[in-house]
Write a structure and sequence with these properties.
- By secondary structure, this protein is α/β, with parallel strands linked by helices.
- It is 38% helix and 25% strand.
- It has a single domain, classed as Rossmann fold.
- Bound molecules: adenosine-5'-diphosphate (ADP) and magnesium ion.
- Adenosine-5'-diphosphate (ADP) binds next to helix 1.
- The site of adenosine-5'-diphosphate (ADP) has 10 residues, from helix 1.
- Belongs to the ABC transporter superfamily.
- It is found in: Cell membrane.
Length: 240
C-alpha cells in the first residue's frame, strides 16, 4: 500500500529525514515511535504530500507521490490524516464538518453524504452530536469526529500524528478504542504515538526513528522485548 525508498527531506540546509526506506502492506498497522524532533511528523507529512520531498520515492496505493505528473489531489483522497490538534471547522456543525469534503471534493449528494456521516458517527459513538458545534464537545469527542471526517473521504490509508497527545488522560482510551476498531476492520494505518501499550497490542509493526533515521523496525515483541540498537534501548528505557 505504501512504498518509501530512500526518502530525504531538508528544510534549507537542515536535513530532517536522512534516507528513510520502508513498506506498509495493505491492512497493516504500523506504529512510529521516537524522541521529539526525530522527524516523525515530517515523515507523515511527506506521506500525504503536505511537505515536498527533497529526494527519494513515495508510492501510495499505486500512485507515485514523488512523480510530478501524479495528480496530488487524487493521491490525497487516498490518504486520511488526523492530527494532535483536531482542526475541525469551528463555525460548522459536526454533520457539516463530516460532509463538507464528500460534497465538495467527492461530489457526493448531500443526502448520501449525510447518510454516510450518520453511520460514521455511530461507529465513533457520537450519533447524538450531529447538530452540535465542535466547541460543545470534549477533546476526545472532537478527535473522534476528526477521525469520522477523515473516514468520510473513503481513504485507503489513515495517518495519525499523536492523535491522543492533546487529550486529558481520561479521554485517551475512547480515541484509541476507535483506532483499534479501525485496525480490526482492516484499515491500513500509520500511527505516530507515545501510547506504548497501544503500539504493542494493536501494531503489527513498530518503527523506531531517531535523528532523521529509521533506526530499527520489527514486530512489537521484537522492538519492545528485544531491541537490537542501543538508541532504541535507551529510548525505551525512558518511556516504558
Ligand atoms: P517529531 O514529530 O519527531 O517531533 P518533526 O518532524 O516535527 O519531529 O521535526 C523534526 C525536525 O524538523 C525538528 O528539528 C523541527 O524543528 C524541524 N522542522 C519541522 N518542520 C519544519 C519546517 N517547516 N521548517 C523548518 N524546520 C522544520
Ligand atoms: Mg511530531
Amino acid at each position: 500500500m505504501i512504498n518509501v525508498e530512500n526518502l530525504h527531506k531538508s528544510f534549507g540546509n537542515n536535513e530532517i529525514l536522512k534516507g528513510i526506506s520502508t513498506k506498509v502492506e495493505n491492512q497493516e498497522v504500523v506504529v512510529v515511535i521516537g524522541p521529539s524532533g526525530s522527524g516523525k511528523s515530517t515523515f507523515l507529512r511527506c506521506l500525504n504530500g503536505l511537505e515536498t520531498v527533497t529526494s527519494g520515492k513515495i508510492e501510495i496505493a499505486g500512485l507515485e507521490l514523488t512523480n510530478p505528473k501524479t495528480n496530488i489531489h487524487q493521491l490525497r483522497q487516498n490518504v486520511g490524516m488526523c492530527f494532535q490538534q483536531f482542526n475541525l471547522f469551528k463555525h460548522l456543525t459536526i454533520m457539516e464538518n463530516i460532509t463538507i469534503g464528500p460534497i465538495q471534493v467527492l461530489k457526493q449528494s448531500k443526502q448520501e453524504s449525510e447518510k454516510v456521516a450518520r453511520e460514521l458517527l455511530k461507529k465513533v459513538g457520537l450519533q447524538d452530536k450531529e447538530n452540535n458545534y465542535p466547541d460543545q464537545l470534549s477533546g476526545g469527542q472532537q478527535q473522534r469526529v476528526a477521525i469520522a471526517r477523515a473516514l468520510a473521504m473513503k481513504p485507503k490509508v489513515m495517518l495519525f500524528d499523536e492523535p491522543t497527545s492533546a487529550l486529558d488522560p481520561e479521554m485517551v482510551g475512547e480515541v484509541l478504542k476507535v483506532m483499534t476498531d479501525l485496525a480490526h476492520e482492516g484499515m491500513t494505518m500509520v500511527i505516530v504515538t507515545h501510547e506504548m501499550g497501544f503500539a504493542r497490542e494493536v501494531g503489527h509493526r513498530v518503527i523506531f526513528m531517531d535523528g532523521g533515521y529509521l533506526v530499527e523496525e520489527g514486530t512489537p515483541a521484537e522492538i519492545f522485548n528485544n531491541p537490537k540498537e542501543e538508541r532504541t534501548k535507551s529510548f525505551l528505557s525512558k518511556v516504558l
